[in-house]
Design goal:
Length: 296
């Protein structure tokens, strides 16, 4: 991450084809899948030498006009443009805040709310979760790292019927959450570990996609109640060092709402906890895995 700006520019230009910016295919063999450096420079109205300095990390202070021109050529959306700007104008270093403290009031909310809810830090470590969240997925149990589960645990993968789409969104959200804070050694270690253990993660991280996920749909394949489409709400916990709260809910009257009610009753009776302790849910999840699922 020492050359975060250059890595981002290189990754994004490789995703833009000449046709997308109105350039002819040109003669000869193209050595890059997307735009050449000289093409980006010409379209942005800057010299090739200057663009090379940016991509190689020799100049990390382009003007706002250059940033806007590069964002236009690389077809960046507003979030990715903001991320590029943050790489050029990084936030001042501050003392790291605690990443493992859940405020008592928030912990009380988790225990009293009747929808799946959990709190995790910027490393995706689950710090707290209510019984309904834990009944919904093994990746929502306190002490679990959700990224490791998602990319390295074959059983957890069976809980995600749209695994490839979901993993792409998760990695894009991770990069958006990190922003220009590229000096976190613990985060470096986690990204390195996942890059070694998962080809899927390594490919997605190299794309440099940026997308903050605050709401939307979440699909889960539960071994007891089947496929559910739930609504997602995410909130930053103010003043708590990057903690996020995740709430899942369903439209009233839908099958998903009925399934959550069923899981809530089972969790209250302790049935799912006992089944998980005996390994029954993992066996059911493995049996529920589609036979044609692709492997990482």
């Amino acid at each position: 991450m020492d050359n975060a700006l250059g890595n981002f520019l290189r990754a994004r230009r490789e995703l833009v084809t000449p046709a997308e910016v109105g350039l002819p295919p040109g003669a000869g063999l193209r050595r890059v899948p997307g735009l050449r450096r000289e093409e980006v420079a010409r379209l942005a109205g800057i010299s090739v030498e200057y663009y090379l300095r940016l991509e190689r990390g020799r100049d990390r202070s382009p003007s706002l006009q250059v940033i806007e021109a590069l964002a236009r050529v690389l077809q960046l959306d507003p979030e990715s443009t903001a991320y590029l700007t943050a790489l050029v104008q990084p936030r001042p270093r501050t003392r790291p805040a605690r990443q493992d403290h859940v405020p008592p009031s928030l912990d009380l909310l988790l225990r009293t709310i009747n929808v799946p809810a959990l709190v995790f830090n910027k490393y995706s470590d689950v710090l707290a979760a209510n019984p309904l969240a834990q009944a919904l997925s093994p990746s929502m149990v306190p002490g679990v790292n959700r990224l490791r589960m998602l990319f390295c645990d074959p059983v957890d993968r069976t809980y995600h019927p749209h695994w490839e789409q979901y993993t792409a969104g998760v990695v894009a959200h991770l990069r958006a959450q990190i922003g220009s804070d590229t000096g976190d050694e613990r985060l470096h270690a986690l990204i390195g570990e996942l890059s070694v253990k998962s080809d899927r993660f390594r490919r997605l991280w190299a794309r440099q996609d940026v997308r903050a996920l605050r709401s939307g749909s979440f699909w889960i394949r539960h071994p007891r109640v089947g496929d559910l489409e739930l609504l997602v709400e995410k909130f930053f916990v103010a003043g708590e060092g990057g903690l996020e709260a995740l709430l899942l809910h369903a439209e009233p009257g839908t099958r998903a709402a009925a399934a959550l009610a069923e899981l809530h009753k089972a969790a209250a009776r302790g049935e799912l906890h006992k089944a998980a302790a005996r390994g029954e849910l993992h066996k059911e999840a493995a049996r529920a895995e589609p036979q044609n699922a692709s492997t990482d």
